[in-house]
Amino acid sequence: MPMGRPKLPLLLRPEESEQLRSVAASRTLPHGLVRRARIILLSASGMSNQAIAARLHLHPVTVSYWRRRFLQQGLQGLHGELRPGRPRSISDERVAALIRKTLRAGPADASHWSCRSLAAQTRLSKTTVHRIWHAFGLQPHRQRHFQLSSDPFFVEKVRDIVGLYLHPPDKAVVLCVDEKSQIQALERTQPLLPMGLGYVEGVTHNYVRHGTTTLFAALNLATGTVIGRCQRRHRHQEYLHFLKEIEANVPKGLAVHLIVDNYATHKHPRVQRWLVAHPRVQVHFTPTYASWLNQVEIWFHIITQKAIRRGTFRSVKELVAQIEHFVRTYNAQASPFIWTATADSILQKIGRLCEHISGTQH
Description:
The chain is of the alpha/beta class. Helices cover 45% and strands 13% of the residues.
């Protein structure tokens, strides 16, 4: 029978037991703290140090250490202590100087700083510069693109279009309409190398152009289906022909609301005359430089990624056939996009961007 020093009894108060169970079941707290809470709970249930160590895959000395520390310091004792280490070799002043140089000045021979170029300027190591940048969220090599609308009726148009998305009118069809122009039929000069174990698909940089096509598309807001038509050119004649196709596909008795951008083709006099002759078709223009409000742009991204970008086409006819095939298969399983942004949330975001831009002016 093993002999040893008798253990002090470990009794938990109800509030301690509840806190330890909460910590032991956590998936977000540090793993070490969770494991220590389990040690105390098992020890309080009467298990020996050896049994706890075997169950948690620990050394018995570790179990004994944390059991003893809990008895001495309670729950606070389960938190690790700060360990001594070498003091920082870089002062706060040098860190602040590096950050100021990153934000307020640029290199004389480049558009932005790199870790190596700034390290040479500040006489710090490349690793140190990278570590400081990472700590403060600085990324000089990256840019985020934006374009503020100059439309004087920006607010009114945003509220109009978002209102159609969130509260579509009764007895009406809402369609997001646009064109994807200059889609190139590109043929790679050499066959694709198929993907294999350990390497990705190979494709040549060189290609032969075989012409272009323009895809006119109308996304049904309620069903997610798309009316698509490829045309050789991108003029008001083709757009007017597409409008007639849309009007013919919508059942009689339903109003038609079209969301379009400000491209000149959409405002051509012949188009305007046709709209006057067909009063059930109402047009809602997006603000200038705000085509992101048109949901059909989401669908254009999908078809580009899935059917166009990685394809190889020996003729425009092949490209058009691929687009038409994608439209058919997409419509067979289409579902509407879920729009959640309100007009107020969009305007608030634009306002924060404007404040950020004005704050950068000196």
